[in-house]
Each structure stands twice: as C-alpha cells, then as structure tokens.
Amino acid sequence: MATSDASCYTIVQDSSVEYPSAADLRRALEKGSDDIKIDTLRKIIVSTINGNAQPNLIMPIIQFVLPSPNKQLKKLLHFYWEVCPKYDENGKLKQEMILVVNAIRNDLQHPNEYIRGATLRFLQKIAKDAELLEPLIPTCRSCLEHRHGYVRKNAVFAVYSIYREFEHLIPDAPELMSTFLAAETDSTCKRNAFVFLAHCSMPKAVEYILSVYDSIPSLDEALQMSIIEVIRADCKLDSSHRARYIRVMFELLNVPSYAVKYEAATTLTTLTQNPAAVKAAASSLINIIIKESDNNVKIIVLDRLDSLRERHGHVLDGLIMDVLQVLSSADMDVRRKAISIVLSMTTSRNVEDVVLFLKKQLQRTQETEFEKAPEYRQLLIQSIHVTAIKFSEIAASVVHALMDFLGDSNNPSALDVVAFVREVVEKFPHLRANVTMRLIEKLNEIKSGKVFRGVLWILGEYIESPSEIQTAMQEIRKVIGEIPILASEQKLLDDVPAGEEEATSPKVETGGGRPKVLADGTYATETAYSSQTAARLDAVRAAAKPPLRTLLLGGDFFTGSVLASALTKLVLRFEQKASDKAASNMLRAECMLIMTSIIRVGQSKFVTVPIDEDSSERIMNCIKTLSELESEDAVQEIFLKDTKKAFSHMLGAQEKRALEKKEAETTKVAAVQVDDLLTFRQFSKKAADEAVDYDQDLGRATVGDTHEDFISNLSRISQLTGFSDPIYAEAYVKMHGFDIMLDVLLVNQTPNTMQNLCLDFATLGDLKIVERPSVYTIGPHGFQSIKATIKVSSTETGVIFGSILWESPNMSEACVILNDIHIDIMDYIKPAYCNEAQFRSMWTEFEWENRVNVDNPMSDPRDYLAHVMKATNMSCLTPEGATSGDCDFLSVNMYARSLFGEDALANLSVERTAAGTITGHVRIRSKTQGIALSLGDRITMAQKNNQPVSAPALKQMISPALYHYFRTPLPYAQTLALQEKIHQLQLLYRKTSSHKDILLLLQHRPVYTAGRRQTEDSVQDERTRLTNIGADFVTTARGGELTFHGPGQIVGYPLIDLSRSSPTVSVRDYVCRLQKALELHLLEAHGIKHAPSDHTGVFLDANTKIASIGVQVRHRLATHGFAMNITREPLAWFDQVVACGLADVKAGAVESVKGKEIDIHAEIPGLLKRFGQLLDREFRPMDIAKEGEIGEAIAAVEEEAVRVGDWANSPRL
Predict the structure, then answer these.
(1) Using CA atoms in the order 90, 96, 98, 102, what is the torsion angle rounded to 10 degrees?
(2) Cα 218 from Cα 869, distance rounded (Å)
C-alpha cells in the first residue's frame, strides 16, 4: 500500500499587532460570545501554525468551545484538531484527546447531515492518527447507510483514507464498497465508491465494470470517466477483456459529454490500431471541436487530432472536409491550427474539393459582417498559395481568383497574393502569358506601394512578347497619368480658380507654434500663415489622381526606382524581340521621359517628401543605361538574366530546405537493434495512441528527485568570508523561478562559543528579502546551516551583501563583512521570437535605449554575432540567408524575453575594418531601464573577456583619481558634511558617468567619534566627560566603535566608486586593500612589520594598534576610511577611552617604534604610491579651482579650519 502524501496546510499571515496572552485567550474562550470565541479560536489556530502551539489551551477549548452548536465554531475546531499537538513528549496520545474523540463521534451521529459530512471530511485530514481513528470506525461505517447522499459520499472517502493508511482498521473495506456500490443509487456516491475500488481493489473494479457492461453508456459522466481510467489501467496489466473494452469505447464515443468523448477517443486509439477505430476516434474529436465553445478546448483537441494524423498517415484523409468545418470558428488560433492539419491531409484526390471550399471562404471574407475578415483572408490566401504550388494542376484555377485581391485594403493579404503570383509565373511557364495580362489589367486597382513594387517586378521579368510590352506600357501610363508630371501638376496649379482657393483654404492667424526639432537636432519655432500659393497647392494635392501618381507625389520614390528598373527591362527586351527600330526608340524615349519626370517632380514643391539620394541615383542609373549602355553585354546580363536567376535560386533553396525538413520528420527506423537506447515515455512527447500512465507521471512529478551535476553545483557556491576570519561562510546560490535560494554554511573557526549570531543580508536592485534569518548560537568549531529566500522582480542587475554579527566571550560585539553575491540576470532571460512588424512596433514604443560601442579583435562579423548571442541569450531574428555570403558589414535584429515578461530588443550593426577588427555598435531597447542596462553590461563584459586587457592598460582606461591634502587640521563635523556633499554629487554625476574618485588626506582637530552600532543613550556619559577634556564628540554612520582622531594622525577618506573596476570590488576586498596598503607603507617607509590579528586594522603586536579602518558603502560609493598614528601626540588622547571596543588593546605610533621625530607631511607621497598600487589607480593632485562645487566645498572647509584657530595639544585632566 502506497504511503500517503504529507498533509498540506494553508499558510496564514500572522498579524503584526500585539498577540494576546494565554490568560486573555482563556478568558475570551470562557466568557465570550460565539463571535468572540470564533475570533479567539482563529488567533489560536494561526499561532499554532506559526509555531506557538500553546498546549495549555487545549482543555479550555474542550470545555468552552467544543459543546457549542455553532457550525462555524465546529468548522474552526476541525482546523484546530488538525494542527494542534495531539501527543505528549513521549509520543503517546494526550488524555484530553479522549474527550475530543467522543465529541467527534457525537458529530458523526448528529442529525444534521452537513455536520456529519463535514466531520467525515475532517477524518480524511487526521487519517494518519490511528489511535484517534480506531474508536470512530463503527460510526464511520454506519454513515455509509445514511439517508442523505452528502453524508454517504464523504463516508466513502473517509473509509478510503483510513484504509489507505491503516488497512487493519477496516480489513473488509473492498467487500464493503462492492456491496455499497451494488445497492447505491446516488451517482456521486457510486463514483466515489468505484474510485475506492480502482485504487484499493482493481479486480473488484473490473468485476463491477463487467457487471454493468451494457448500461455504461447511460451512466453518470463522472462515473464514466472513472471507468475509462480503470480500463486504461487494466489493459496495462491484463488484456483478456480488451475486445469488450473496445466495444465500450465505441459506444462512449456517442455520449453527450464532450469530456467522456475525448477520453474515450484517446483510450480507443491506445487499445487498438484498427483503421475503423482510429477513424471513429478522429470523427468524434472533430465533432467535439466543431460543437465545443471553448477555444482552448478546441486547440487541445486539434493537437490530439494532429498527433493522430501523424501516427496513422492517410487513414484520416477521408475526414478532411469535416476538419474544414472547424474554420467556422471565429478564433484565429483555432483556424490556423485547423488549416495546418488540412494542408497536411490534402492529397491529389481531395485537393480540388479543398481549394473550392477555401475559395468560397475567401469570397465570404469580403462580406462586411464577417468576423476578423482581414486576418482570415490572409490565412486563406497563404493556404491556397501552398496548395497551388504543391499541386500544380489547380494553380491555373486559383491564380486568377486570387488576383482579384491585389487591390485589397488589407496590405498583408495583397502582398501574399503578389508572393503567390511571383512563384506561379516562375514555376509554371505555360501560365505566364495569362497571368501577366491579368496583372496588367489589375494595375489600376492597386493602392499599396509594396504591392505595386511586386507587380512591377513581375511584369519587368516575365513579359516576353513585344505586343505584351506595349500593352503593359499603355496601362503603366494610365496609372501614372499625364507626363511630364511636374508640368501637368504646375498646369493644375495655374488652373485653380480663385473661388476654389478661398473655399479650400481656411484662415490661419500668424503666430508662434510649438517648437519643432530640425534635421540637425536644433529647435525652431513654426509660424503658420495663409497665402494664396499654399491654398492653391493644397487644392492640387487634394485632387483625384491615378494610383501610382498618388504614391509618387506622396513621397514613395522607392516604388519610383522599381518602376524605372522595370521600364528598363521592358525596353531592353523589346529591342531584343522587335525589329521595328522606330517603335523601339519611341518606347525608350517614353520610358526615359517617365524616369526624368519622377526625378524632377521629386525635387519640386508638389511632393510631400523630397526624393531621397538613393532612389535618385537608382533612377539615374536606369536613364544612363537606356541612353548609353543598352548595347553592353554586361547590362543585358544584369537586367534580363541575373535577377530572375537569383529568384529561381532562392525558390530552389526554399524547396530544398522544406524537403530536408520533411525527410527528417518522416524518417523512421525500420528495425530495432538489441543495443538501441530505451525510450522512457515520461521524457518524450506522448503520441496520440500511447497509453497515458497518470500514476507514473504524477509519482515522478511529486516524488522523483532530479540529480544535478556535481561540478554545476560547485560553480554555484560563493565564498562569503576568508579562511582566516573567525567565522567561515559560503553560500550555495540556486535560482528557483522567481526566487533565489541561499543555503549558507557557517563554520566557527574559533575555540569560543559564538552567541546571538545573526546573518544580516541586504540587497541592491529589484531584490527583496522574504524573511530575516533567526539568531543562532554556534559552539567551538561548530557548523550551522542557514537558509534564506530572496524574491526577484525584474532583470535589473542585483547584488546581495551583508554581514555576520555575534557576541564574543567578553560580551563585546564582533562583526565580519561578507563578500558580495552578484546575481546573473542570464538565468532570467530566454531567447524569444517575433515577426518584423512586432519588432518594429516595439522598437518604436520602447523608450529606454542603451548603446554599446563595439571594438573587438575578431575578424568575422558573424563570429561576433554568435559571441553576443551566447553572452546575452538573445535570438537572431534576421534570416540566416540574409547574413550569409562574404561581406564586411553585418546588421541584424535580436530579441529576448525575461521570465517577468520584459521584452528586450537589440540591433547589432558592425563592420570589418581594414585592420581586420570588428567595429560598430549594439543598440538595446526595452520598456524598462533595468534589462537594457543589464544586457549592455553583459555585452561589455563579453568584449572584455574576449579581449584580455593588461593591468596597465586597464589603469589607463579608468580615469585617474584625484587627491587633496589639507595641511591644517580640520573640524570633524565640517569634514563629515564635506564627505556627504561629495557623495551626493558623485551619485548625481554617476548618471552621466562623469563622477570622479577623490581621496582626502588630512589631520583632524581632537575629536572622539562613535560608530553606528552605538546608540546616543549608550555614549551620553562619555560625550560629557570627553568634551570636558578639550575634544569634540561626533556620532557617525561608519562601521566600528568609539575611536579618536587628532593632530599627529593621518586620516584618509577614499571617496571612490567600487563598481568602476571590473569586476566590482566587494566591500570586504576593499577593506582588505586598505589594510594591505597601510601595512605595506609601514614596512617599506619605516621598516615596521605588522602583527597578524583577528580584528580589522593594523597591529604592532597583539595589544598595540597603530591604524584603524572604518568604512561606509552606499550605492557602491565608499565614504570614511582609515586613520594611522604617526606622532606620539594622539596616544594621550587614546588613553582616555577603550578604542574600537578592544579593552586589552592600546594605541601605538610610528614615532614610538622608531624612537625619533617623524615629519607627518612627508608621509603623504608614500601613502599615495601604496594606495595607487593596491587600488589599481593613479592619484593626481586636485586643482580645486577647476572642480566646481566639489572644489568650492573643499575651499570652504579649509577656510573654516583656519578661522576656528588653535586646538588643545593634550587632554585637560
């Protein structure tokens, strides 16, 4: 017997208000009304679920709540008995639960059927507690005979739950259910009892099916579904009843329920491969599709029908006309799927009927009330196109019908017709004459420039005879109108009467309009005024004109260049075919006049958009060809052969790819070898007639473990602290949907117990910590695993950082700063695809753009494209054929979509330089800023990874940092304000990447500073005492505890951007570099070796500290810094406090170690040198006169330092 799944509870959000005490809860239960008891019991349930069980409240609940007849209270009691602690610490059932069992027994005998049924449902929730259930078995069994169906159906499932867990409690349950099923009349109860037999006693379930064999088609729908499921399961184990089952499935195909029909059709194809059965199942599925109103159901059943067709080939071809009836659906997805199936079922036997039906549907789309007519028309045209190319015998009958849609207002439909006609005239030469003549007749109906270009190309390529060329020229003249175009338009302008001018031109007062952006990017004010010329020009433009002339005057000169190319081809071909030189010269002159007229009118005031340089050059080349180069063989080859040959080659390549795809899909292995790999159904797509094993699939989905690669797991581990830290920490980072799961391992590396240890995380970006980790205690050399969940809401680059805090043996607080965890956004970005129209629409709509310049040593643009696609997970939308060939320039569109629904578009435009490198840019657009910036960073990093940069070169790429040394000691408060002002300016300038890194070196006037861990109350007494001895006292936001700054001590404030370098410098790494620079300076400048210590700072020995470090990092910008004692002057001040919380540590100084006086100003060059080495930066002196606001702020602080005068040289004790 399979074990049951763990109980599932609803997660309840606990209120943040103060929770009442146990005494208050007891008082409310004892003396409150039913409403108060309901509210109190709800609070107790929530508290129990959240871990506060309060077992001492069980008895008050039994005393004061259990006797209540209130139905809502009884329901809440069921929830409470489900979650409350029912066993004592020894694992035995509590004595109080005897009273609970007695109350449940009374409810099972309650005269109200609702209370009985709800209690039976409750028994299913406590089905694992055998001691509770055993006294209730007789009462539960008696409920099977209750008069009300609601009680009986819940009693069946209660017996099932008990029998599944503890078979010995009801050993005769299968026989009991068989007897119950035979006598039961309620359909739901029968279904529940049958499900019991199906899961607990399959032979009895089969026996029941055979006993009601003839009446199965008339049973209730739910019971029929359960019978079908049992039939599938039984046929996997025993096929002795297969024939009878097949007959039942045939009969169930005719029942009214669509769900039963679908399951019966699916099961029938798994039981037999007989063509009649397959055809009957398919017919039933088609009937469901036609009659079902839910479009999602239609698509699901169409998928099943399609898989049947793939499996059984031409068995279903006879049903093709039935499938065509599905096109009556208004949903376009359903229509597309149905058309796809129809095209795959079309053969030479039924193609005429299919095309006739599609043509009738095409005619219906012209009716105004037809739903989604433009989209449906385009789909039908594409389908007829595919069919006509596949079956050439019907091409002639459909091509003329489709050409009626060349003038369709729906441009995509007309373009599909052009594509179809172009392919027909290439593949079927015998149809060319009729098709081209029909195209010539339709020229006057065409409205779209794209359609005109396609038709003109066809006419220029495939009109052969001189008479057809002359006919085509006559029609082209009609659609252009009178030529020269400029002269005729000017004549119309001159003929506009004054009355019409006044009627057509409204009065517009002269005045300033909104600013306009000119072509060079500058602004200008537009002034509108009415004039006779403008009004007459508008009247000429508004006059009715032939279609091609309208397009040209509207600025479509690309169509004009295509017209020039087509006319050139017609003239050259006419000269080849005709012997009449006079007619040939006349035709050439006429065509040259048309081309010249297009250029002239494009440069005039009659067009809305002037002719572009490219179109003008194309038309001029055609004029030059006709005037000077028509006899050249190369010209004849280019115009009359090359373009047609390229089109033929393109069609051949398309057919080859389609054939290869079809062969790949239809290739079947004829034999199975003994050493072939086994195919597991759960890992592959299910075939239509393959048995569906829901039990195995469900078991694998809920229980089966997926084992990940060991190396992959190791790559997800981030080291958070160093091996020499008191506590070692590492985190296993796993992406799980929209969550980041952090499994942090902590190792206490000290011989002391770490008490009240807290792992404190914080985030940058669109990351949110779900819950704060608890406080732990870790023994000496002990381990602790802590899990944390972080929600991700967008693809903005995120950073997780934090610290570990604990109490050391002397009760002082210790801290370790963690290394940062950078979240890889590529886990959330997946390749996606969209069509050209969707790409252009989104490109116009999206407002965020990130432009990344490209300078890469790769030599092949296509290799760089593959490199970028791999780095960004973006897909290339530009067809492979468009990027093939040998070319130094590459421009492609790319697209990706995040798990959060964010679209990311990119355009890559690069070229190969003479030096063999790649240069250009990548433009990324998105609706939100985060994904655009993140993808840009990925491309930048990919370039750096592909082109390693040496350390000196990297130093040169990052702008030098500036430093300023204050020779006069500064007041601490003003210096703190200066740091904050520079920090805010850096934040502001960072948006334009113009912020500068600054190092301030100085001495302070005597001051004691407290860190952010110390509250104002805790330092109030110290503040009073220390200010009395002559020092200032300031509370700051830096790390660390109380310390001293004053003359004789060099203080450094590096105000730098930690994200400027690549990769970003973590906070811990930054602190280590500061400490290393100080240690290096002491060693190289003074020969002083530091002593290792577990604490931050530089120590001369275990009890002498010479330099302190305390930093604050906000938005990756660092403030505060370090302090190093040079002279003996600070030592007396340090003796007045416990510096940095280290009671057994005293302050040291360079002068004390060296035994001689040290010039503090001489230390500055050496410190700058070492900091430059450790921070990989070059430090240059700041010219404060040229640094704007920052320079002014620094100058103001220096003036204040001079103004305040002298300071105390030693403590006034």
Answers:
(1) -150
(2) 59
| Structure token pair of residue 732 | 């296993």
Q: List Cβ neighbours of 244 (8 Å cut-off, separation of 6 or more).
A: 210, 213
Residue 1043, classed as helix, strand or coil, is strand
C-alpha span between 610 and 759 (Å, rounded)? 68
Lowest mean pLDDT among 92-96, 123-127, 796-800, 1089-1093: 796-800
Q: Are 265 and 308 in contact (CB under 8 A)?
A: no
Closest listed residue to residue 566, CA positions, set 482, 640, 634, 636: 640
Closest CA to 874 of 822, 792, 928, 942: 942
8 classed as catalytic: no
Q: How far apart are CA 1198 and CA 1195, in angstroms?
A: 5
Retrieve residue 1158's tokens.
Answer: 């040290």
SS3 45: helix
Tell me whether residue 541 is exposed, middle or buried, using C-beta atoms within 10 angstroms of its C-beta: 0 to 12, 13 to 18, 19 or more: middle
Instruction: State both tokens at 718.
Output: 């981030």
DSSP, collapsed to helix, strand or coil, labels residue 785 as: strand
Dump pLDDT digits (tens) for 1097-1143: 899 988 888 998 888 888 778 898 999 999 988 888 888 887 766 77
Residue tagged active-site, from 84, 235, 622, 1140: 1140
d(Cα 105, Cα 102) in Å, to the nearest integer?
A: 5
Segment holding 1002, helix H or strand E = strand 998-1002
The CA-atom distances, in angstroms, between 131 and each of 93, 126, 127, 128, 168 are 7, 10, 10, 9, 13
- pLDDT above 60 (res 603): yes
Neighbours of 465 (CB within 10 A): 14
Q: Are 824 and 937 in contact (CB under 8 A)?
A: no
User: Rg of the chain's alpha carbons, rounded to an integer?
Assistant: 43
Q: Please list, in sequence order, all residues whose beta carbon lies within 8 angstroms of the beta carbon of residue 897, skipping any fewer than 6 positions away.
A: 829, 830, 832, 903, 904
Measure the CA angle with vertex 1117, ends 1114 and 1120; round to 5°: 85
pLDDT at 895 over 90: yes
- The residue behind tokens 């969940």 is 789
- Rounded (10°) CA dihedral 413, 416, 421, 422: 140
| Region label for 1140, one of left (φ > 0), alpha (ψ between -120 and 50) or beta (otherwise) | left
CA 479-483-484 angle, 5° bins: 140
Helices 202-211 and 221-237 cross at an angle (nearest 10°) of: 120
**Is the CB of residue 511 less than 8 Å from the CB of residue 527?**
yes
Cα–Cα dist 909/147, whole Å: 79
Percentages helix, strand, coil for the chain, rounded to the nearest 5? 55, 15, 30
The answer to whether the bond into 1092 is cis (omega within 30° of 0) is no
* Reduced 3-state DSSP string for 109-128: CCCCHHHHHHHHHHHHHCCC
* 1105 in Cβ contact with 1131 (< 8 Å): no
Helix locations, 991-1102, DSSP H: 1016-1028, 1067-1086
SS3 (DSSP) at 348:
coil
pLDDT per position as a tens digit, 11-49: 555 554 566 787 888 888 888 888 888 888 888 888 887
CA dist 598 and 596 (Å) reads: 5
- Of the pLDDT bands very low, low, confident and very high (cuts 50, 70, 90), residue 503 is very low
CA dist 1071 and 1066 (Å) reads: 9
Angle subtended by helix axes 173-183 and 202-211, to nearest 10: 20
Distance CA 1050, CA 1170 (A): 15
Name residue 798's amino acid. G
Distance CA 354, CA 356 (A): 5
